[in-house]
UniProtKB/TrEMBL annotation, chain A:
GO terms for cellular component: cytosolic large ribosomal subunit. It comes from Linum tenue. It comes from the Eukaryota. This is Large ribosomal subunit protein eL14 domain-containing protein. InterPro entries: Rib_uL2_dom2, Ribosomal_eL14, Ribosomal_eL14_dom, Translation_prot_SH3-like_sf. Pfam families: Ribosomal_L14e. Gene3D superfamilies: 2.30.30.30, 6.10.250.2270. One of its GO terms (molecular function) is structural constituent of ribosome. Residues 45-117 form the Large ribosomal subunit protein eL14 domain. One of its GO terms (biological process) is translation. Belongs to the eukaryotic ribosomal protein eL14 family. Coiled coil: none annotated.
Automatic annotation (TrEMBL), chain B:
CDD domains: KOW_RPL6 (cd13156). Residues 39-94 form the Large ribosomal subunit protein uL6 N-terminal domain. Pfam families: Ribosomal_L6e, Ribosomal_L6e_N. This is Large ribosomal subunit protein uL6 N-terminal domain-containing protein. GO terms for biological process: cytoplasmic translation; ribosomal large subunit assembly. Keywords: Ribonucleoprotein, Ribosomal protein. One of its GO terms (molecular function) is RNA binding. One of its GO terms (cellular component) is cytosolic large ribosomal subunit. InterPro entries: 60S_ribosomal_eL6 (IPR000915), Rib_uL2_dom2 (IPR014722), Ribosomal_eL6_KOW (IPR041997), Ribosomal_uL6_N (IPR005568), Translation_prot_SH3-like_sf (IPR008991). Belongs to the eukaryotic ribosomal protein eL6 family.
Amino acid sequence: MGFKRYVEIGRVALINYGKDYGKLVVIVDVVDQNRALVDSPDMVRSQINFKRLTLTDIKIEINRTPKKKTLIEAMEKADVKGKWENSSWGRKLIVKQRRAALTDFDRFKLMLAKIKRGGLIRQELAKLKKETAA
Amino acid sequence: FPFPLTYIARLLRIHISERKREEEAESNQNSFAAMAPRKTPVVSRNPQLIRGVGKYSRSKMYHKRGLWAIKAKNGGVFPKHDPKPKAAATPVKPSKFYPADDIKMPLPNKRKAKPTKLRASITPGTVLILLAGRFKGKRVVFLKQLTSGLLLVTGPFKVNGVPLRRVNQAYVIGTSTKVDISGTNVDKFDDKYFAKAAEKKNKKGEGEFFEADKERRRASCHKTRRMTRRLSMQHCLNRLRQCQI
C-alpha cells in the first residue's frame, strides 16, 4: 500500500501530454507544488506540470540541476534507455509505435504471419486432443 | 505651345517607328544604299520620362539617329524605295453556297488536353489499392500513365486475377510499397489497345469481324503479358514476399 514512485530528483518520467508527448524525461528540480524542471538529452531543459508526467520505476543518481553533460553521463551509467526498453511498459509502447507505422505491405505480411501462427497452434492443439482422446 | 506635348510625343513615336520600319525594309531589300542587317536588337535612343513623353526633342532625335548622315549619303534627300511589286492577286471566286440563315458558329476551341497530373506518390512499380469497380480492394501494380491520363495497371493476373487494365487515378490509393519493374516493356500498351472493337457497318459479316478483332487482341495480349509477367513483376513480387516472411 502507499506510493511506490515518488517525485524526486533523478526520477525518470514519461510526458503524456503536449508537444513532447511520449518522451522519456528526468526530473531535475522541483519548481513548486505543481511543476518540475525537466530535462532530457534531446530536449531543452524546461518546466512542466506534474499532470503532464507519468512517473516510471527508473531513477538515476544526480544532484539537483546537473549540467547537461553530467546528466547524459548519469543516464548512460544507469542505462535508462536499456531499462526502459526491457520493461514491459516500454516494450508495449514500442510495439504501439511500430503498429502505427505499418505500411499496407507490412500489414499484409502481418496477416500472413498471424495465419501461419494460428495454423501451428491449431496443429499442436489437434495433437494434444488426439493424445487425450487416445 | 500650339499643340499639346502628348500630341507631339505621339507624332514623334509614330515617326520613329516608321523610320525604324523603313530602315528594316531597306536592309531587307538589299538595295545599293541599304545598311547591313542589324546585329543588335532595336533599342530606342529616346528614353521615356513618362509614358508618352520622350527625353529628347524632334531635332535632337534627328541628330541622334543620324538621319542627317543618311541624307548626306543619299545626296541631301531621304532615300526612297519603290514599293515591292505586289504579287498578282489570285482571282477570288464567288462562293457557290450562301447559307439561308445566319447560323451562329461557336468560337474555335484550340485547347489541347494534357494527361492528368500524376500524384507524386504514384511511380512506375508502385503498388496501388483499387477503390472502385470490379476489382475494388485489390492491390495492383502500376505500370505507366497513358496519354488519356488513365493509369495502366496489372494484378499481375496470375497473382490476383486483375488483368492489364486502365484505372482512373482518383479511384486509387498509392501505397508506399514499390516493385522493381525496370525490365518490363509496356510500350505496346496504350489507349488504342483498350478501345472497343469497332462495329462494322456491314451487317452480314458483323459477327465475324468482331471475333476476328478479339482474337487479334488476345494473341498480342498473351505474348506481351507473358513477357511482362516473366520479366519482372511476378518475379519481383514473389521475391519481395518471400524474403520478408
